[in-house]
Amino acid sequence: MKYFGFLIVFIISLVLAVALSVNFGQIPSLGYLMDPYHGFWQNAYSEDELAEEELSVTGLSAPVKVIYDNHLIPHIYAQNEADLMMAQGYVTAKHRLWQMEFQTRAAAGRISEIIGSAALDFDRMQRRKGLGYGAEMGLQFLEENNSATLDLITAYTKGVNQYIDQLDMSKTPVEYKILDYRPEHWTNYKTVLLLKYMADMLVGDKDIEFTNLRKQLGETMVNRLFPDRPASGDPVIEADHQWDFEPLDVVRPDSIDYPDLSLLIEPIPSPEPGVGSNNWAVSGSKTKSGRPILANDPHLGLNLPSLWYAIQLSTPDFTVKGASLPGALGVISGFNENIAWGVTNATRDVRDWYAIEFKDDNRLEYLYNDQWIQSSIRVETIQIKGDVPHQDTVIYTHYGPVVYDKSFHPNSQKLNFALKWTAHEGSNEQGTFLGLNRAKNHADYLSALDHFTAPAQNFVFASKNGDIAMKVQGKFPLKWPEQGKYLMDGNNPLFEWGDYIPFDQNPATLNPDRGFVSSANQYSVGESYPYYIFDNSFEDYRNRRINDRLREMENITLEDMKALQFDDYDLHAAEALPPMINYLTQDTTMILGEHNEALLGILRKWDFYADPDAKGPVIFDIWWGHFKDSVWKWLGSEGGAVVYPDDFTTTSIMKKSPQDSVFDLASTPEIKEDAVDHLVKSFEETAIAWEALKEEKGENISWSAYKNTTIQHLVPNFKSFSRAGIFTGGGRSIINATSERHGASWRMLVELGNDVKAFGIYPGGQSGNPGSKFYDNFIETWAEGEYVDFSFRAESSTADALFTTTLTPTD
């Protein structure tokens, strides 16, 4: 009952917050919420206090044992895979039911059902992007092509629904009570939809921004400031890799006419900055034990309940352990007795926009190849709590849905753009993870990846027999150079995607001579790769820091890998700050006062490690932000949505060409500005901002206090269920990529051998119940760069067992 008092205080403040909040419309039913027998009071428990020795589950073929360790991590032992999946569904729902349902409601555009009309715009956007349509296509694909996967999804669904049917109202998750709605049954569709939701989280595009930049700057300048192939080098697959396939022909049309539109004002929503990941594997030739070691830390939004749910799944045929996604089957990032694997985002442009010309306002026909062809209509009925349903008519072209029109963001200039996206196509990503869970070798790993379409991912691999590998996997359109970089003409067939790159021609490597593989969201390949690759957000710093460290390291241990995952070294600052200081202090017009000298003193002494109690990274972050804005703000001067050149490009021009024309501002024709002018101006702004910051937060402002890492509840208004002010270092472009709201959502290390050694941690806890001691108990361990022993547990082991439950079959 540790959290009982906390919940009383929370609920009083929360009821007031909900009553006053425009975000949540209807005030919850206080009778349900405050009911002494069924209300929030009944959620003030930890799972070990209500442990059941036996639970009845209809449909199991044999008993299933579930052993919880002292962190509430379940270890599930079943006699076959169907029982295992049913048990996983049951156990996951027991601890994360509200999260599972809320996330799939969000994906489906169904939040208005529980909070009212305030969510209508969000719901319409989700549906107009076609997430639900993509899930329908995915489920149809499984029904027609992958009955084995579908059967296991069905078993999982049955397990979830068994738990829901047995759920006593008093133990219904507190979020249902606050928002005044009830759990609904799980479906196979929701599992498919969840994986489409992940694709949406990890894909973005800047077609509109680049269209504006092309119109403003011209194509030559765009290519200079935004090169397709980043100059930082060091790609995912080693640059000198030799390809052993005959590429398909790709021909760029002789003449391309892009749509001639005025500057487009609003950007298309994209993932939040900071979303990324690291993974690597080192061969036994570089480790002290002679065994391969694999590491993975996906960087995503930091939320409570956590995105991940740790679990071990065992049958007589295999045992797998790692991080699962509540609502999806199996382990997503993990290991079994023979292999380990992990994922990072491959940042490939697989989402394009086409300008559509309709025949008339009915939009029943649109122009394609100078002929009118028929569109289709999809009516989305959105239920709204406390209001009548909203009927939203979405037009679909052969490219995909028309997201914006006169009824949705009618003042936007993005009218009648159709979205083409690989996530709309049928696929079996769930089959990939089920295959990896059972895989025994590299061939099994490749076979499992053949099911994977979206989002594009870098899959790292290591095996007990000593292999290490990396593959960039996804369904990638066969594009000619620059296709999809800008808004395209929907009438012109030359802009159509061609075929797809064959899966066996996706970039991949096995046992490279350098003794390691790694990825950190950088460009995938060297110049010898024959296909065009583009994205707007390739990473330039984390990957080079990782590769530099792995090249120089020998006799590597798991402790070394722990230190590398938590590495706080800011390579960007190390490359940018010395010339910034040098230019600043060489400027004879700059008069440094006492405060400025103090700031420079802190920066000069900084060792470029973004540790939580350091001041240097605070000052550098402020200065760099002001400098970059000073240099590039002219790009948005004509009113269109744009994107700035990245930090690497900005730093390179500043260092190598301080007199470059990009620094000269058109707004001051009588003066020719250079990089030094911007550095002086931005440093003066930094000094002012630093003094204001000290007044607000005190003299000893630290990096940790400044960035205020927050692990936020999935409903942002529920601040009492969130954790702010986490004392930890790191930051964007740093291996420990912990920023304000993003970071390592899961850290895993695995050493393969006869006895697998593994460690893992994530910023949250196993329980979805804020009243449980297991809700956020991992956060401090995670923030300090420490881990939980994640090695396998044998069914016979009783060490540190919290409790054991047997799921018993009933008719």
Mind describing the biggest β-sheet? 11 strands, mixed
Number of strand elements: 28
Provide the CATH top-level class of the domain at 4-201 and 800-810. Answer: Mainly Alpha
Helical proportion, percent range: 25-40%
Taking the alpha carbons of the first and last residues, their distance comes to 36 Å
CATH superfamily of the domain at 4-201 and 800-810: Penicillin Amidohydrolase, domain 1
Q: Average pLDDT value?
A: 91
Net shape: globular
CATH topology annotation of the domain at 4-201 and 800-810: Penicillin Amidohydrolase, domain 1
Number of continuous helical runs: 22
Q: Assess the beta-strand content as a share of residues.
A: 15-25%
Structural class by sheet pairing and helices? alpha+beta
Question: What's the architecture of the domain at 4-201 and 800-810, going by CATH?
Answer: Orthogonal Bundle
Output the radius of gyration: 27 Å
Largest sheet: spatial strand order:
1-28-2-3-7-8-9-10-17-18-20
| Uncertain regions spanning at least 5 consecutive residues | 1-28
